[in-house]
From TrEMBL:
Keywords: Cell cycle, Cell division, Cell inner membrane, Cell membrane, Membrane, Transmembrane, Transmembrane helix. The keyword Electron transport does not apply. The keyword Cell cycle applies. HAMAP family: TolQ. NCBIfam families: tolQ. This is Tol-Pal system protein TolQ. The Tol-Pal system is composed of five core proteins: the inner membrane proteins TolA, TolQ and TolR, the periplasmic protein TolB and the outer membrane protein Pal. They form a network linking the inner and outer membranes and the peptidoglycan layer. InterPro entries: ExbB/TolQ_transport, MotA_ExbB_proton_chnl, Tol-Pal_TolQ.
């Protein structure tokens, strides 16, 4: 007869084979790291959205461009990604505009290139560690499955020395093996959900950045005329 204590999760983990224990430990460690990046990336994206909305409001309410540029330059770290894109474009615009012999198109192209380069750096920063979450979501179930297969192999190998197999003999081995699959799913599901959500948020911010870049380029072009 199989007792409840023998089939508890902690008992199954404690009595698991060394390989299965290693798989469980690895999955728990990966899950802990993924949760760290889930929370950290969530806070970072929320901060980027709020800073972007705040700067858009200041920009489109008719604020002075020079004043906005000085404010963005004074504290680039907390200004937000869109403010840094604006700051890079306006700085290049002011520098090129002061040089003699440049066509208006050259000045606008230089400003646009500066904004595009900063935009790409901002997106790279926002997308950092999303690949890790995607990898955890795709690989963890297979790692857990490996632990399950190994545990089931050990359970059936142990039956080879027994004349008559009973449920009491095979159930603990199979149950401890299935715990590895459960831990793999526990690591994978939050990582997949977070990756899909954050990738969508980054794409939406990218659209806002690119739209601002084009609109601001048009504003700068009108200032040259």
């Amino acid at each position: 007869m199989i007792s409840a204590d023998d089939m508890s999760i902690l008992s199954l983990v404690a009595n698991a084979s060394l390989v299965v224990k290693f798989v469980m430990g690895l999955l728990l460690a990966v899950s802990g790291i993924s949760w760290y990046w889930i929370f950290r990336k969530g806070f970072a994206l929320r901060s980027a959205r709020n800073a972007t909305s705040s700067f858009e409001h200041q920009f489109w309410t008719g604020g002075d461009l020079t004043a906005l540029y000085r404010a963005a330059s004074a504290d680039r770290d907390s200004a937000g990604p869109l403010a840094r894109i604006f700051e890079a474009g306006y700085r290049e615009f002011a520098k090129l505009r002061g040089q003699a012999g440049l066509e208006a198109s050259d000045i606008i192209d230089g400003s646009r290139r500066a904004m595009k380069a900063t935009l790409q750096r901002e997106l790279d920063d926002l997308e950092a560690h999303l690949a890790f979450l995607a990898s955890v979501g795709s690989v963890s179930p297979y790692v857990g499955l490996f632990g399950t297969v190994w545990g089931i192999m050990n359970a059936f190998r142990g039956l080879s020395n027994v004349g008559a197999a009973t449920l009491a003999q095979v159930a603990p081995g199979i149950a401890e093996a299935l715990v590895a699959t459960a831990i793999g799913l526990f690591a994978a599901i939050p990582a997949v959900v977070a990756y899909n959500r954050y990738a969508h948020d980054v794409d939406r911010l990218a659209i806002r950045f690119e739209s601002f870049t084009e609109e601001f380029s048009n504003i700068l072009q009108r200032q040259i005329r």
